[in-house]
Write a structure and sequence with these properties.
Shape: globular
Number of strands: 14
Strand order of the largest sheet: 4-3-2-1-5-6-7-8
Number of helices: 17
Structural class: alpha/beta
């Protein structure tokens, strides 16, 4: 009997950290496993107690992986309305303060047995492989699919010596993704280009937002008006998430926007600076702490303003559309997917921003069709993912390396040898503490420390490999 195909989804974050790589892979695992045709395992980071305190909001702490797994499953079931059958495994992780992200510790591919190693989905493959030291992903798994979530180059460009840093990061990303991934899915053209890549938005929205949208549509049909509030924006409160662009647009056009009001919601390192900058403008700009976008507080807002160009595909934009609102956003590759929706209005310049905003505030949003509503769903996103990854085909787990053309065969063989040599170079460089730290790795991240080993029930480190310098 043919056994079910096994798909292991590795990601760089977990709830309760409400970031895209915590939420979207979780939904992907749920909907890929829903029909029971595949065995799915979601592999997420486990953090030490100190790191949990730095990352997780509202003083949420977990004493064990099983306690965190229970939290994750309960959160998911409340939003999907069904129990999910996928497995969850934890890998040791450490939080990098300077990168504001979680990085894997040790060889996390080992968590999947060789018998299960059919397909690996690396959510943020560059992030997961920058410092990977262990068995090569392409050797371990028959198919490795990278899903590019983050526009790292855009963030880096905003830092000191940003152009040089972005150039070096681009080379590093291209290197590790090429040697570790067979296929790459870019959520939008806003990301760095990679060989063997396809552009496809394989994310959906939390079903709760579609339910809110349907209720609003019923209100529109019965009462003619469903929204009693004006404009708002929600996002992590750091300048790079669109706040800088938004406040500049509003400041440059205060006269044209006389009487305009907007509510900003978010938490982040730049909250105080955003508040001070907003207070300098003559417009009514209220800065509020962050909240869950599904909170009833947001249901009655009519216009979602999002000038951010650092996102790859903005989750909150999709959620606002699902709730039936107007969305005003930049004409940027990250928003290409949203242009098919009548309630999405894009602008090319500051005048276009003012015109689109004023028009949205003065009109009722269009009622969404069933087909467009389905495009936002996780069911549709899962179909797009299976098609983009070619996992909907019988030959998905086998990669053909044969060709009848001798020249082509020789060429492919040479390319493979070069790639193998490149992968070996990365393996060697990532195996020494000195070279790892030179490229920005967290000190002592070659092997899990005693606390992580105890929490996860891991065996002692083999030999003295982790002590080389």
């Amino acid at each position: 009997m043919d056994r079910k195909q096994h798909i292991a989804i590795f990601t760089t974050a977990s709830l309760p950290w409400m970031t895209g790589t915590a939420v979207n892979p979780l939904f992907r695992a749920a909907y890929l496993s829903k029909d029971g045709e595949r065995n799915i395992t979601l592999v997420i980071p486990w953090l030490s107690s100190n790191d949990q305190g730095l990352v997780y909001p509202s003083n949420i702490m977990f004493r064990s992986p099983s306690e965190q797994e229970m939290y994750v499953r309960q959160w998911l079931e409340e939003r999907t309305g069904f129990k999910s059958a996928f497995g969850i495994r934890f890998y040791p992780g450490k939080f990098s303060r300077d990168k504001r992200s979680i990085l894997p510790v040790g060889d996390i591919a080992e968590l999947i047995s060789d018998e299960e190693a059919d397909v690996a989905v690396l959510e943020e493959p560059e992030h997961l492989t920058w410092y990977h030291h262990g068995k090569r992903w392409k050797t371990k798994f028959r198919l490795v699919i990278g899903v590019i979530h983050t526009n790292y180059l855009e963030y880096v460009k905003r830092e000191k010596n940003g152009r040089i840093q972005a150039f070096l990061l681009k080379q590093a990303n291209g290197w590790v993704v090429n040697i570790y991934c067979h296929k790459v899915i870019r959520l939008s053209a806003a990301t760095q280009d990679y060989p063997n890549s396809i552009i496809c938005n394989v994310h959906g929205v939390n079903p709760k937002f579609l339910e809110i949208g349907q209720k609003k549509m019923q209100q529109q049909q019965n009462e003619g008006k469903a929204f009693s509030k004006g404009a708002y924006y929600i996002g992590k409160m750091v300048w790079s998430k669109g706040y800088k662009e938004l406040l500049k647009l509003l400041g440059d056009h205060q006269k044209e926007l006389t009487g305009f009001e907007i509510d900003l919601y978010g938490n982040g390192e730049d909250s105080d600076q955003v508040r001070k900058a907003a207070e300098k403008l003559e417009l009514a700009i209220r800065v509020n702490p962050g909240r869950d976008h599904a909170d009833p507080l947001f249901h009655d807002y009519k216009v979602f303003l999002n000038p951010s160009t650092t996102d790859v595909v903005c989750t909150t934009t999709a959620e606002a559309l699902a709730m039936g609102k107007w969305v005003v956003c930049a004409n940027h590759p990250s928003n290409d997917f949203f242009k098919q929706f009548p309630n999405c209005r894009t602008y090319d310049d500051s005048k276009g921003f003012v015109d689109a905003t004023q028009k949205a505030l003065s009109e009722e949003p269009a009622q969404m069709t069933d087909d467009l509503r389905y495009e936002l769903s996780w069911e549709a996103a899962t179909e797009r993912f299976l098609k983009a990854a070619q996992l909907d085909q019988a030959s998905a787990t086998k990669l053909s390396r044969t060709t009848s053309n001798n020249f082509m065969s020789t060429s492919l063989n040479f390319k493979r040898k070069m790639e193998d040599a490149s992968a070996y170079l990365h393996y060697v460089a990532s195996g020494y503490e000195m070279s790892r730290r030179a490229f920005g790795a967290i000190p002592g991240s070659l092997q899990p420390d005693e606390e992580l080993r105890k929490d996860l029930g891991l065996p002692p480190p083999p030999g003295k490999r982790g002590s080389r310098s």
